[in-house]
Amino acid sequence: MDVHAIPEIPLIAPGDDLAAIIIDALDSSTLEISDGDILVIAQKIVSKSENRYVDLATVTPSSRARELAAKVDKDPRLVDLILSESSEVLRAAKGVLVVVHRLGHVMANAGIDQSNLGPDENGRERVLLLPENPNAASARLRSLFENHFQRRIGVIINDSVGRAWRNGSVGMALGVAGPPALWDRIGTDDLFGRPLQITQIGLADQIAAAAALVMGEGAEGQPVVKVGGLPWEAVTTNADSLLRAKEQDLFR
């Protein structure tokens, strides 16, 4: 397995042709695209290209948002956006607001972020929402990449998230096209011939986490990573296969 950042990816603006920018960067680099390579793309540049910015000055918080904001010690306008992007609030304490995003992911602040965002052209504070549909965006990008390179290519859109039980953030797959997001090993034998009973591997999350080590979380400016050397067969499922049903989730 090899993991390489794609060099010379410029700052992305609303309306930019993200596929064309990534293709141009790859064509200009010394990196070769091989059959089975997976391109892991930071959620933030997908959201920027989709113009998922919101100017906080345009948000009028609801009474519920104001009440919740006082509890969690956050900007009421931000809390209002979090609620609008969520289907359920799971935890609310000082500094913590964990929700079920409308896409089904359990995450803090509905994935809304301000890191690595400058003000708008008028100097106003803004935030960035998750992509509208990461799975659809992954599928569209994959089709464009495969048509250009004439190779079998996978696409994962990743984001950094915290986890229950553990400190620290890791990369997580929000959108997947091509490789299986969930690798079901149930029924295969272990070292001693015993069939595995419950083993399912979050393959796309593991790839996203590996790519996140190269991407970085600060000023690295490496939002696209090529992962090669992993065997996989194309499937029609996507990142939704990683979502645990509510009735099976002991933490809800």
Task: Provide the number of structural domains.
Answer: 2
CATH level-4 homologous superfamily of the largest domain: CofE-like
Corresponding CATH architecture of the largest domain? 2-Layer Sandwich
Summed up, the helix count is 6
The average pLDDT is: 92
Radius of gyration: 19 Å
For the sheet with most strands, the description reads: 5 strands, mixed
- Computed structural class: alpha+beta
Helical fraction equals 25-40%
What is the total tally of β strands? 12
Order of helices and strands: EHEHEHHEEEEHEEEEHE
Characterize the overall form.
globular
CATH class of the largest domain: Alpha Beta
Poorly predicted tracts of residues: none
List keywords for this structure.
252 residues, alpha+beta, 60s Ribosomal Protein L30, Chain: A, CofE-like fold, 3-stranded antiparallel sheet, 25% strand
Task: Tell me what the structure shows.
Strand 8 and strand 9 form a beta hairpin. This protein has 252 residues and is α+β, with helices and mostly antiparallel strands. The two termini are 36 Å apart. It has two domains: 2-51 and 130-244, CofE-like (60s Ribosomal Protein L30, Chain: A, 2-Layer Sandwich), CATH 3.30.1330.100; 53-128, CofE-like domain (CofE-like fold). The strands form four sheets. The chain has a five-stranded mixed beta sheet. It has a three-stranded antiparallel beta sheet with strand order 4-5-6. The protein has helices at residues 18-28, 43-49, 63-72, 76-84, 134-149, 203-215; strands at residues 2-5, 38-42, 53-55, 86-93, 96-101, 106-108, 126-128, 154-163, 166-177, 183-184, 200-201, 224-228. Helix 3 crosses helix 4. The protein is 26% helix and 25% strand. The chain is globular, with a radius of gyration of 19 Å. The longest helix is centred in the middle third of the chain and has 16 residues, at 134-149. The model has no long low-confidence stretch (mean pLDDT 92).
